[in-house]
Design goal:
With 257 residues, the protein is α/β, with parallel strands linked by helices. Strands 2-1-3-4-5 form a five-stranded parallel sheet. A five-stranded mixed sheet has the order 9-12-7-6-15, with no helix packed on it. Strand 1, helix 1 and strand 2 form a beta-alpha-beta unit. It is elongated and about 60 Å long. The chain starts with a strand and ends with a strand.
Length: 257
């Protein structure tokens, strides 16, 4: 039994992972509340059953989950099982949160820093008992997005090249907002190209919209590309991507302050 411990606020990223694991190991072997707890079931009884039977406990660590008392109860019970040798506790980091002190000595899977596909591969390797060392298949991400939320309807995004110059400054901000509800302006460049692409399908199956922001100059350390995104209602933010070739975009890590 594989237990998926998370908060409902993180389902956008957690559910695609749960579905991928179910394809490999079968839905009945994955404890995921959306299908493991049905109407009429006792929630606490079902959770206790899942915790009792689990052999692999994946704790999806995020700023949201660390504020959930239910998730806290789950992973602290899992620590007890891990200390008894009856289950393996594997943290999966989703954002730039601070890892709980009790888990600092535990090696975690890093969705935030390494990406979704690499993390799913590592989860499968852990379950199968395979060494998760895959450095030849990992890509160092030189560009990160630093996001400042001024209000629910306004955010400033700064794309930084951390180590070396990136010749292509083509970025996409993924949102659920409609085109007439959201706008983008560049704060770092006098001339830039913008656009709106509707119904983009991501690798995890999620469908969203993309605000495009391009510049003809490079993004280099000390010279970030900075944009402001404004909504008439509220920004429904999904993530950020950058172009790595003419026709290919890749998700990049983002840090929200």
């Amino acid at each position: 039994m594989i237990f998926i411990s998370h908060t409902a606020k993180d389902k956008t990223i957690v559910e695609p992972i749960a579905l991928r694991l179910a394809q490999v190991y079968g839905q009945n072997n994955i404890f995921y509340d959306s299908w493991s707890i049905q109407p009429g079931d006792g929630i606490i009884d079902k959770m206790n059953e899942g915790l009792t039977n689990c052999k692999f406990f994946f704790f999806f660590v995020s700023k949201n989950s660390l504020q959930s008392n239910m998730v806290k109860l789950e992973w602290q019970n899992a620590i007890l099982k891990a200390s008894n040798g009856t289950a393996k506790l594997i943290p999966v980091k989703l954002d730039d949160c601070m890892m709980p002190a009790l888990l600092l000595q535990t090696l975690y899977i890093d969705v935030f820093g390494k990406g979704l596909e690499n993390s799913i591969r590592q989860m499968i390797d852990v379950i199968n008992g395979t060494n998760i060392f895959t450095s030849l298949n990992q890509t160092y991400e030189n560009v990160r997005a630093y996001i400042k939320k001024n209000s629910p309807s306004e955010m400033v995004i700064e794309f930084r090249a951390e180590t070396y110059m990136e010749p292509i400054s083509r970025y996409a901000i993924l949102v659920k907002n409609a085109e007439n509800d959201i706008s983008i302006n560049c704060e770092s460049d006098a001339i830039f190209t913008q656009g709106f692409n509707k119904d983009i399908t991501l690798n995890n199956g999620l469908i969203c919209n993309a605000l495009a922001a391009f510049s003809t100059r490079a993004t280099s350390p000390g010279f970030p590309f900075k944009v402001k995104v404004t909504s008439k209602t509220q920004i429904e933010f999904i993530g950020v991507m950058r172009a790595v070739s003419e026709n290919e975009f890749r998700m990049i890590p983002h840090i929200i302050s």
